[in-house]
Write a structure and sequence with these properties.
With about 130 residues, this protein is mainly alpha-helical. The protein has a domain at about 1-60: Multidrug-efflux Transporter Regulator, Chain: A, Domain 2, CATH 1.10.1660.10. It is about 70% helix and about 5% strand. It has five helices and three strands. It has helices at about 10-15, 20-30, 45-60, 65-75, 80-134; strands at about 5-10, 35, 40-45. The protein has a three-stranded antiparallel sheet with strand order 1-3-2. A hairpin with a 2-residue loop joins strand 2 and strand 3 (about 40-45). Helix 3 packs across helix 4 and helix 4 (about 65-75) runs antiparallel to helix 5 (about 80-134). The longest helix is centred in the C-terminal third of the chain and has 53 residues, at about 80-134. The protein is elongated and about 80 Å long.
Length: about 130
């Protein structure tokens, strides 16, 4: 792919496996700023880089507002130091949330396995009692 050329909304959708609606939504949320030529939207290399960051942030569970603020910090002129510090802080919080949810899920899984083991024993015992009664 020629990294300096613009891409149409269809090319962006194909490249990132998104719907046009999703791209328009990100544009409406001021996360992407395609060039407008009439009804046509043309996405630059910068838009593609921003979209990669948006999708990564979403995968990690960052809110769209967090992502928007982080993208705005890119242009501060401090070699992205502020952006990196803020991203790291949000990532720390997000990781703690994810690990907490994982611990809760692990406990629920174990409890369900224990209940299923109990249920399997009960089914086996009742089955033996029915056979003995026949």
């Amino acid at each position: 792919m020629d990294t300096d050329r613009t891409m149409t909304i269809r090319e962006m959708c194909d490249a990132f496996e998104l719907t046009p609606r999703t791209l328009r939504f990100y544009e409406a949320k001021e996360l992407l700023f395609p060039i407008r030529e009439g009804q046509k939207r043309l996405f630059t290399r910068r838009d593609r880089a921003r979209l990669k960051l948006i999708l990564r942030g979403k995968r990690f569970g960052f809110s769209l507002e967090d992502i928007r603020q982080l993208l705005e910090l890119y242009d501060m002129g401090d070699q992205q130091h502020t952006q990196l510090v803020r991203t790291y802080a949000i990532a720390e919080d997000r990781l703690a949330e994810m690990e907490s949810r994982r611990a809760e899920l692990d406990a629920a899984i174990q409890e369900l396995k224990d209940q299923m083991a109990w249920g399997a024993k009960m089914i086996a015992n009742l089955g033996q009692e029915q056979k003995a009664a026949e």
